[in-house]
Amino acid sequence: MAIQRTQPDDTVSDDERAWWKEAVVYQVYPRSFNDSDGDGVGDLQGLVDRLDYVASLGVDVIWLNPVYDSPQEDNGYDISDYQAIYEEFGTMEDWETLLEEVHDRDMKLIMDLVVNHTSRDHEWFVESRQGNPEYEEYYIWREGDGDDLPNNWESFFGGSAWEYDEEREAYYLHLYDTSQPDLDWSNEDVRQDVFDTIEWWLEKGIDGFRMDVINLLSKVDGLPDGDPDSEWVGSEHFIDGPEMTEYLAAMDEQVLSNYDIMTVGEMPQLTVEEAREYADADGPLDMAFHFQHTKLDYDGDERWAVGEWDLTELKEIIGRWQNGLQDEGWNALYWENHDQPRVVSRYGDPVNYRRESAKLLGTFMLTLCGTPYIYQGQELGMTNAPWESMDQMRDVDAINHARELIESAGHESYEDVQDVVAYRSRDNARTPMQWDDAENAGFTDGDPWIQVNPNHDEVNVEAAEADDDSVLNYYRDLVDLRERKDVLVYGAYDDLLPDHESVYAYTRTMTENGDTEQVLVVLNFFDERPTVELPVEYDEATLLLSNYDRADDAPDTVSLAPYEARIYRLD
């Protein structure tokens, strides 16, 4: 029989179902995905050329990172025109072809929405810095003479969050790069222009948005000093500000609710309680990204230092989110994205057990309750790249922090900080997609805009396609299993071994129309060989999937190989 549960109710009704809950999302960073014209930069036609590959993964949705017109100071997150395509990526006609081809393959397309800030080259900012009355208050300006900063807020990319503008003779706020001035969302005209932009894209037929740092829109009036000892100085005044819920509710009421779409908000410092407010059944968003599990390998709160991570802490974080959103809200599940280093290099073993640990980490992500997001190359088990010098790097965040680390600690060169900067750089996620073992990994016939990971000669799509035991084919099995097993989508979560330091075991249980289905997941996160007794009761157990060649053995006492993953059906 099934184990007795004490967690939230595992029954699922028809009105709890939604297409975006049952979807698997594949994230494409277009600059690094596939170059069709040999200029060294990925483009929209390159993505069209590889759509059959994406469809072969069994995914349902493509999330496309920004392709809007941009000076590319922050790789497209500095937008100069929301209704135009960056010329190196192609044309609006290319984008329209992409949308049509995605839909023809029964997939959906969601776009990145970046509306906390724009580029300094955006018409709104150009007019604002010139004092045009129509746009004068579109950004957050403070008078000054260039000597005294308005407050002590910090940019996430390092240094002050204020930049002095000689033309307007005032400071503007930029919570990210100096090229990305923050919009003033307290201005109703700003909100309306953004809402009109959202509607413009939805009318073109897209299927939703991933919303960049969306909980930073509301800033506290008066711009007081922030806590100098906080992880991000000033964040208590600009994250989840007083009008945040009001702004998103208006966006939903005026635009989003008129379309059958999916929305996911990227939300720094998000808590479960806040997630329920933003993304419950009546919330303005469908789900939200949090960052708690991506900080396990920080040294305390220090992002630019590497510490040891603890599996029991991961269990506590995941349990809090799985149980906290079981009845209210919905989880967004991910390990990697364009801002995170490769997970195999962080929480796996890229040297001795790259294949096994990549499969294990994929098993974990695709067997939890929520909508999974696979980042390009994750399905291959791609790893971090070596960054021998700062000249190889393109990530403005990593470069700025490398310089800060060199100066603040009295170091003499990049070599003194290379280990942490190379480990943490966002460039690790942005090396070109590894299609084959050719010189540039099949990404381009030209000179790639960023270095190709030298391990592409063995880690690539062509080799993986020819290997039945590859990470790629295992991911396909995982996606297929999740599609066939509703319990992996809607089932309640129960952690069986919360205190075990190397084995993570949990069940997913779902009751619908009086029938109960239960799945057991057992994961060994390290290179040890533990044996564990599991508190499960069953009449029959069937092994559904494993990253090792295993017999259909009983799961009550399990001896595990390094980085082994198993999924059982319990009857």
From TrEMBL:
BP GO annotations = oligosaccharide catabolic process
Keywords, A to Z, come to: Glycosidase, Hydrolase
Show the coiled coil region(s). Answer: none
Q: Which domain of life is it from?
A: Archaea
In this record, what's one Pfam family?
Answer: Malt_amylase_C
MF terms (GO), sorted A to Z: alpha-amylase activity
The chain positions of domain Glycosyl hydrolase family 13 catalytic read: 27-430
Q: Which InterPro entries match?
A: GH (IPR017853), GH13_cat_dom (IPR006047), Glyco_hydro_b (IPR013780), Malt_amylase-like_C (IPR032091), O16G_dom_2 (IPR045857)
Enumerate the PANTHER family for this protein. ALPHA-AMYLASE FAMILY MEMBER, OLIGO-1,6-GLUCOSIDASE 1
Similarity comment? Belongs to the glycosyl hydrolase 13 family.
NCBIfam families found in the cross-reference section: PRK10933.1
Name the chain's protein. Answer: Oligo-1,6-glucosidase
